[in-house]
Amino acid sequence: MLNSHSSGSDFSGNGSCDARLQKLIARLRGLTTPELNQLEQLLSDLEAKRLDSKPSGSARPISLEIRNSDSKSLDWPHAPIHRIAEAGTYFVTSGTYGKQHFFRSPTSLSALQQELLAKAKQYGWQLEAWACFSNHYHFVAHSEANATKLDVYLTHLHADTARKLNELDLK
């Protein structure tokens, strides 16, 4: 996923930027999966640094116009609105602070997964798929009729996994 926020440059209406964008897209299409993974990580790191250095509220979502193989224009929203208060199905990704590998041990990774599953049940979220790694996790979940808001579920999950990890570190 390549998320972007405007940083003062606007790709629409500028011929040299349009040409540059098309060249970059062509180069992206030639990358292997591992190379795309590395690029995605690099872009995430750059975006995090940029957003950390901006005053709150200065980033604005943009859409880029790109063309598919038929030269038809495609709208590409880079920063869709996050509506986590609404019922529905969500794909969630969350990572550790500084992308540190806090859940490297099998015990800590198991604790993360157990908390993820227990909190989902507690807050009325049906997990369809999930994957836990040493520095991040992903899940696809659907809110049940009586589900608590997603941000409440995630806040409690993160707080309890941090406490559990601290307990494991003390042992």
UniProtKB/TrEMBL annotation:
It comes from the Bacteria. InterPro entries: Transposase_17_sf. Gene3D superfamilies: Transposase IS200-like. One of its GO terms (biological process) is DNA transposition. GO terms for molecular function: DNA binding; transposase activity. This is Transposase IS200 like protein. It comes from Aureliella helgolandensis.
